[in-house]
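<purpose> Linking amino acid order to shape
<body> The protein record starts here
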Amino acid sequence: MLGLKLATDPRWVNIVESNIEEILTDHAWCEQKAASNAISIVTYNSEIEELVTEMLEIAREELEHFQMVHNIIKERGLTLGRERKDHYVNELFKFMKKDGSRRDALCDRLLFSAMIEARSCERFKVLSENIKDEKLAKFYRDLMISEAGHYTTFLGFARKYQDNIDIDKRWKEWIEYEGSIITNYGKKETVHG
């Protein structure tokens, strides 16, 4: 369904399991950034009522996920560390088109968002199927389903609001680009790392 070029090696979970505090901290901040991204889309496209309504819902869900991860951190006697840079997301950001109309920019921002959700969904699936901690396995399975919904929402809005962009062609470009950079990741105990 996601069409990603490269699947995450399940052995990545061994790295994750070596430092659960780090993956949980990184994951919490990923959820915060996802909420901020949805709010940014609202800020720049406030005239599109349907989009605003849905982005506010996604922002709320992402903040709920942040709270859920924080609760797991507290339950385990761990500490929410400082925010981490997400080099993967920063590399994706560079691929966004900076020219064209406002509508073109919106569509590429939506595709950027869909790409992040697609990879997060894929990583959560790998975690849910391979992590030994049963509670975390269920948690990541539930979040995988949520991320898949966000992915389809972003992609659907990109298709709906495009003016003169071939969204399917541009999405294939995103998939190719992501496939070229993801080979540098999957080596750290972070969601995208």
